[in-house]
């Protein structure tokens, strides 16, 4: 996130990221000034301590100072523009060259229509939102109504609303936004009434746990915790770092530049200098460490950039001195608010009954083979069942215990002999495979007791096949049975007890 | 260090104020232990109540800055918090939202009419009367021109009109209520306790700068000598504080208020430990006293039976409350999963 331009006020991008509280970097190359980049700030100078503290800075995570955040550190905004077209669903041919008589919708409340007080409070009397209004999911963004063109009336009201119904165009995103600007997009000719609207929304995005940050050396990390300032380590002069990162981020990546920037930034902050970060200014004999180290020494600091620090929680001095300096940090546009995914139940695919994919559609995250193995290794069989069946394609299915088939069970219907509800389902399920036709049984001469016979939907009478039961299975199991049977393979399930 | 002699001479903590400025206090705290000194530091940083703008009603804002951004800037403006005991916390007040007893209203009304860019300063905040006392709520202005911090800039025709409600609060809740910008804290500047193991290339004494003032304040003076024996039982007892106030409270008031807050908290702990016979029937029976209200939910803290294994569970109900899965009957038509 940064400052994408000087004309943000007049732009209507679909999505723009903006940093609210940008600063000029202490450490910078000469071209930074030449290009006038101070007009487009894209980060902040953060006091960074390189220390493994509380474990919340493990693995490229970083700890943010909660007070720094409250003072505005890395606050950002997203601007989104929503265009609302009234002519959207109509004949999209004719290339928008609509005549005055083809218009059948107008913005605003229908005259004399009932509008709830809640809507009235959210929209202005013209049916458009108030500038600066807060909108949450489901709130109306604007109102419109149906009209018909009245050619006889050539005065100002040439469009007449007949149904008295107001349609509301809703804000569908789940995030809170503020109305920044409303633009009425008039017709090309200027003769027809306004048919589309462009609403610019402002979404505040203060940094939260899970947001991504980076120094200019590719040392990116995710905020894992916002510690209260009193719990953060502090130096003898009382400086509390804005960011804590883990020392293990350095050895393998060898981003020496970040160390030098930290040193230069610290010296620059102490002396009030903007440091030159041009490469190749130093040699093996005359090193950057010595140059900036000397500046630090003059300011009364250790020339390696280390400082004795104290635990904020106990007040005890750490056994190791801590590398602390000032590094320019950027806020990256990958934020949890755009990425988090959660589901217990929700939409499923038609075929299998399993959850659909995709964050936007409310889908699930797959518990794959590796995840399954992990759960098995932990002995969490019950949890595994819940993931793989309970929260997925749980189904209760009739099965025949006699022949072990899902596919041969079928519901029975009321026969003529048993009363007037002929053809209606009885709720009893029998196995047709294990049953015999009533006619055959009678022909054989066997006894058929009262109520022993049952009827299928096509009027055929049967006897037997009572050994059915309901089992809970994953829906795809039955689907597999169907697919296999189509290939001439029969599955047989031994249902106990 | 001769601790025995000192205990006779000196009982209880001692404070030596070394330097005092309008917004800074440099003092030494002696004869306390580390936990106490750090508690004081933490309290002064985060729990001394001050005033700050907490609610902003935006009537008009045609500036280039968003409402919430200006509101945030307003919140960070330091407001005089002298004798803040006169102000109630809104949560303790009888009023519905806020009132004169628990808040101070400041209004900002500015419009740029000239061709030049106009700056709106903290001095343009108008404090409404009456208020709990004559100081509380005044924006802190320390610059020579008497302007205070810039809130926003306006171009010709732009205007801001906002009603700001300042409330009493502490920095634990939001950093805008912080009374200090930083508190310097140091003990054992000569590292005689060897809490710190200095990293060095050749010679730690040459490479590590020492705060001379603090180092020489220690009566023993000078770094560890080779022939000196290491007293591994020694604990820090002298703490060098350097407190910098934001301006809403005088530095000595910050210290006093910090001590007061700490006393109140300790009194609350003591009261809880002593136990209230009427409230807690068998006080002292479990040895834990009254439970933190937002602590573990329900149950007797001290008499937890611990984890009972769900296997071989003779009762019909399982650990998950009843024999049923969330889907009605248990799968496979059994009455309990472990039968
Ligand atoms: Zn069968
Ligand atoms: Zn009140």
TrEMBL record, chain A:
Residues 363-408 form the RNA polymerase Rpb2 domain. Residues 1-361 form the DNA-directed RNA polymerase subunit 2 hybrid-binding domain. Keywords: DNA-directed RNA polymerase, Nucleotidyltransferase, Transcription, Transferase. SUPFAM superfamilies: beta and beta-prime subunits of DNA dependent RNA-polymerase (SSF64484). InterPro entries: DNA-dir_RNA_pol_su2 (IPR015712), DNA-dir_RNAP_su2_dom (IPR007120), DNA-dir_RNAP_su2_hyb_sf (IPR037033), RNA_pol_bsu_CS (IPR007121), RNA_pol_Rpb2_7 (IPR007641), RNA_pol_RPB2_OB-fold (IPR014724). Its EC number is 2.7.7.6. Belongs to the RNA polymerase beta chain family. This is DNA-directed RNA polymerase. It comes from Stereocaulon virgatum.
TrEMBL record, chain B:
The lineage of its organism: Eukaryota, Fungi, Dikarya, Ascomycota, Pezizomycotina. Residues 317-339 are annotated as: Disordered. Residues 24-272 form the DNA-directed RNA polymerase RpoA/D/Rpb3-type domain. It comes from the Eukaryota. This is DNA-directed RNA polymerase RpoA/D/Rpb3-type domain-containing protein. The keyword Hydrolase does not apply. NCBIfam families: PRK00783.1. The keyword 4Fe-4S does not apply. Belongs to the archaeal Rpo3/eukaryotic RPB3 RNA polymerase subunit family. PROSITE patterns: RNA_POL_D_30KD. Keywords: DNA-directed RNA polymerase, Transcription.
């Amino acid at each position: 996130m940064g400052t994408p331009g000087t004309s943000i006020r007049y732009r209507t991008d679909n999505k723009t990221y903006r940093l609210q509280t940008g600063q000029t970097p202490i450490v910078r190359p000469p071209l930074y000034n030449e290009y006038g980049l101070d007009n487009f700030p894209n980060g902040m100078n953060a006091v960074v301590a390189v220390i493994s503290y509380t474990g919340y800075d493990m693995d490229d995570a970083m700890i943010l100072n909660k007070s720094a955040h409250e003072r505005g550190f890395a606050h950002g905004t997203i601007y989104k523009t929503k265009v609302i077209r009234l002519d959207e669903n109509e004949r999209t041919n004719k290339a928008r060259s609509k005549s005055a008589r083809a218009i059948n919708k107008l913005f605003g409340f229908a005259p004399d229509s009932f509008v709830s007080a809640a809507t009235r409070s959210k929209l202005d009397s013209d049916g458009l939102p108030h500038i600066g209004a807060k909108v949450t999911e489901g709130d109306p963004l604007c109102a419109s109504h149906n009209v018909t063109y009245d050619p006889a009336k050539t005065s100002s009201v040439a469009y007449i609303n007949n149904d008295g119904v107001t349609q509301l165009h809703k804000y569908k995103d789940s995030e809170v936004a503020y109305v920044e600007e409303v633009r009425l997009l008039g017709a090309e000719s200027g003769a027809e009434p306004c048919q589309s609207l462009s609403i610019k929304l402002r979404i505040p995005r203060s940094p939260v746990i899970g947001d991504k940050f980076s120094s200019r050396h590719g040392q990116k990390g995710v905020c894992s915790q916002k510690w209260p300032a009193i719990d953060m380590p502090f130096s003898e002069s009382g400086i509390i770092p804005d960011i804590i990162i883990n020392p293990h981020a350095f050895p393998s990546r060898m981003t020496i530049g970040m160390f030098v920037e930290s040193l230069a930034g610290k010296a620059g902050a102490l002396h009030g200098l903007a440091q030159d970060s041009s490469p190749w200014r130093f040699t093996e004999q005359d090193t950057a460490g010595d140059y900036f180290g000397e500046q630090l020494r003059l300011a009364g600091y250790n020339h390696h950039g280390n400082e004795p620090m104290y635990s904020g929680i106990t007040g005890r001095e750490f056994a190791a001195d801590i590398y602390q300096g000032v590094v320019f940090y950027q806020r990256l546009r990958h934020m949890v608010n755009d990425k988090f995914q959660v589901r217990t139940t929700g939409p499923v695919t038609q075929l299998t009954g399993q959850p659909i994919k995709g964050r936007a559609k409310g889908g699930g995250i797959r518990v794959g083979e590796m995840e399954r193995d992990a759960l098995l290794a932990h002995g969490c069989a019950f949890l595994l069942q819940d993931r793989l069946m309970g929260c997925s394609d749980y189904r209760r299915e009739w099965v025949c215990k006699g022949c072990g088939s899902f596919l041969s069970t079928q519901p029975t219907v009321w026969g003529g002999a048993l009363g007037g509800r002929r053809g209606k389902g009885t709720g009893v399920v029998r196995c047709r495979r294990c049953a015999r036709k009533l006619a055959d049984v009678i022909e054989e001469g066997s006894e058929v007791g009262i109520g022993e016979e049952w009827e299928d939907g096509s009027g055929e009478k049967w006897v037997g096949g009572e050994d059915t039961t309901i089992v809970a299975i994953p829906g795809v199991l039955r689907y597999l049975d169907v697919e296999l049977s189509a290939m001439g393979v029969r599955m047989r399930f031994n249902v106990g007890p | 260090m001769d601790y025995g002699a000192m205990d006779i001479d000196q009982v209880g903590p001692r404070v030596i104020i070394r330097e005092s400025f309008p917004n800074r206090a440099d003092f030494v705290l002696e004869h306390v232990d580390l936990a106490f000194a750090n508690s004081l530091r933490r309290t002064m940083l985060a729990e001394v109540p001050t005033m700050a703008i907490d609610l902003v009603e935006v009537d008009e804002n045609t500036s280039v800055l968003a409402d919430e951004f200006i509101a945030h800037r307003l919140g960070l403006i330091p407001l005089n918090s002298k004798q803040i005991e006169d102000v109630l916390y809104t949560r303790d007040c009888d009023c519905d939202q806020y009132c004169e007893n628990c808040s101070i209203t400041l209004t900002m009304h500015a419009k740029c009419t000239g061709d030049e860019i106009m700056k709106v300063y903290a001095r343009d905040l108008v404090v409404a009367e009456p208020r709990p006392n004559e100081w509380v709520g005044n924006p802190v202005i320390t610059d020579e021109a008497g302007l205070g911090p810039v809130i926003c800039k306006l171009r010709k025709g732009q205007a801001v009109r906002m009603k700001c409600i300042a409330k009493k609060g502490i920095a634990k809740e939001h950093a805008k209520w912080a009374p200090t910008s930083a508190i310097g804290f140091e003990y054992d500047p000569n590292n005689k306790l060897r809490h710190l193991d200095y990293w060095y290339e050749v010679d730690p004494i040459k490479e590590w700068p020492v705060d001379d003032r603090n180092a020489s304040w220690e009566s023993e003076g000078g770094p560890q000598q080779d022939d000196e024996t290491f007293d591994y039982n020694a604990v820090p007892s002298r703490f060098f504080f350097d407190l910098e106030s934001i301006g809403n409270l005088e530095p000595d008031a910050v210290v006093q208020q910090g001590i007061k807050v700490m006393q109140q908290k300790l009194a609350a702990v003591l009261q809880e430990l002593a136990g209230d016979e009427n409230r807690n029937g068998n006080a002292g029976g479990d040895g834990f006293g009254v439970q933190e209200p937002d602590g573990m939910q329900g149950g007797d803290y001290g008499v937890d039976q611990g984890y009972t294994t769900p296997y071989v569970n003779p009762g019909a109900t399982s650990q998950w409350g009843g024999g049923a899965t969330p889907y009605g009957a248990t799968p496979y038509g059994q009455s309990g999963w472990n039968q």
